[in-house]
Known about the structure:
By secondary structure, this protein is of the alpha+beta class. The chain has two domains: 5-163, no CATH class; 182-312, Cyclophilin (Beta Barrel), CATH 2.40.100. Helices cover 15% and strands 33% of the residues. The chain has helices spanning 38-47, 195-203, 271-278, 293-312; strands at 5-10, 13-18, 56-60, 65-69, 73-78, 81-87, 90-93, 99-102, 107-113, 118-123, 125-127, 157-163, 182-186, 206-212, 216-220, 235-236, 241-243, 251-253, 260-261, 265-269, 285-286, 288-290. The strands form four sheets. It has an eight-stranded mixed sheet with strand order 21-14-15-18-17-20-13-22. Strands 7-6-9-4-1-12-11 form a seven-stranded antiparallel sheet, with no helix packed on it. A five-stranded antiparallel sheet has the order 2-3-10-5-8, with helices on one face. A hairpin with a 3-residue loop joins strand 14 (206-212) and strand 15. The longest helix has 20 residues, at 293-312.
Amino acid sequence: MSKNYFEIKRAGINTTFQDRGRNNLYHIGIPFSGAMDDRNFKISNKLVGNEINFPVIEFAYQGPCLKYFGDNINFAITGDVKFVIKKNDKIIEGNCYQSFTLQNEDKLDIISTNKSVYGYLAISGEFNLEYQWSSCSTNTKANIGANKGKKIEVSQKLYISKINKDLSDKKLNYINTRIENIRVIKGTNFDYFSEEGKNIFFEKEFVVSKLSDRMGMRLEGPKIENIIDTNIKSEGLIKGVIQVPADGNPIIMLSDHGTIGGYPKIGVVISADYDKLVQMTPGSKIKFKEVELDSAETLFKLYELETQNLISQI
């Protein structure tokens, strides 16, 4: 067993291992899963000198408190997160998008996210994890992935199989920004909804419900009227698709979504806006804006290019 490990003193809320997720398994009912905020996931790995798809620890709202045992190791946290490093009686305030060194018996206390949902902890090395379908992403609804498909728990030990030799400090000047509108393309059942319902979808505000998790985001607001059928034969779903059940309140499918569903689909959140969407906390207001498919493709390419530019600055 490795001599380098973290001991979990507090598990935090919905703390799991995540990477880029699983490809091409929809046909057997397995979604992609993976890090909710792909940009912050990638940046966290780059800050500690890892390959871009190494598993990291994803947490929501309150993060874990970990005590480290072993050789010096670097870590970085991305997102909008408050955390401290405890070295004996000394407390060091942490900064996101900057690498720090942990020494034997140091504590890392990830206190909370600030006006956002998800944060990411990457270490300069490799966690000792089991892969499933070429990914260690944890889907707790299906008990799939690393840690036997479970959340990280208090008193658990997270072993590290390898530490990078390069422990140089890295930093990125980056601020998470909010987006005014969530852009969508029309869904396959767009014409199931009345003209008033369509206008409401694009012109009115919706509020993110507390009933949101890695599987889906429920919205509350003016009801979207369906004039054809509130249920359809179950069809395939994708990440970001917006279903409208009989109560008229939209549900946005997120990374751990079910792969089929029987509610009509009014729209799909474009990939370029997905990272911003998942960071919207309960009570946040959402407005949707329609874009065409070719514009959505261009916006995604630009977003990917911007992400690559940020990574190249590290």
